[in-house]
Amino acid sequence: GAVVSQHPSRVICKSGTSVKIECRSLDFQATTMFWYRQFPKQSLMLMATSNEGSKATYEQGVEKDKFLINHASLTLSTLTVTSAHPEDSSFYICSARDGVRGGGETQYFGPGTRLLVL
Amino acid sequence: GQQVMQIPQYQHVQEGEDFTTYCNSSTTLSNIQWYKQRPGGHPVFLIQLVKSGEVKKQKRLTFQFGEAKKNSSLHITATQTTDVGTYFCAPSGGSNYKLTFGKGTLLTVNP
Questions:
Q1: Quick one: which of A4, A18, A97, B4 is 20 to 30 A from A73 by CA?
Q2: How far is CA B53 from CA A61, A86, B19, B26, in A?
Q3: Quick check: B43 and A97 CB within 8 A?
């Protein structure tokens, strides 16, 4: 149980294009989903927190107009990197919290998406 | 957010040796979680500690939460090559149980 999937697992795009990453909770309802970014050999940095049906809360320094987050259902959240540039190349990881069944402090992580912007 | 310092940053051991990573906070934590990330992989939840002085064991892994709830440690007895990876501590807090990850300790094991 508690499986989170991410799609795509890897994407290469040209500078200036937009990229959408999907995060799905497969066997539970995720009231809250989190989006992280991880640069090589560094820790995970939280970008934003999204609750189903409401606007995402972004961490300080993260541009909300560049990283669009939508959490339209209890099993799906999307992150769109708009007008991507080479400095946006990174490992993007989502996680989900099962707040419906309680005991919701544990986050279940997706496998991540490696984004390379040329 | 709740900041934590994690040491050491890197640790290289011979297979069979023990390993310990430490996580320290300047403020009292309500709880702390530990994650393992294999090279090229994603973080996998290991355990959550909540009570002052709590000690939990998972086979060769021993997790401790300090009496003052300001520090935590993960100890691995007799390391194996499968233990290779980065170990992160992460306190959670707030209404959404937001995690703040430490910088992690990268463990490499020489067979």
A1: A18
A2: 36, 46, 20, 17
A3: no
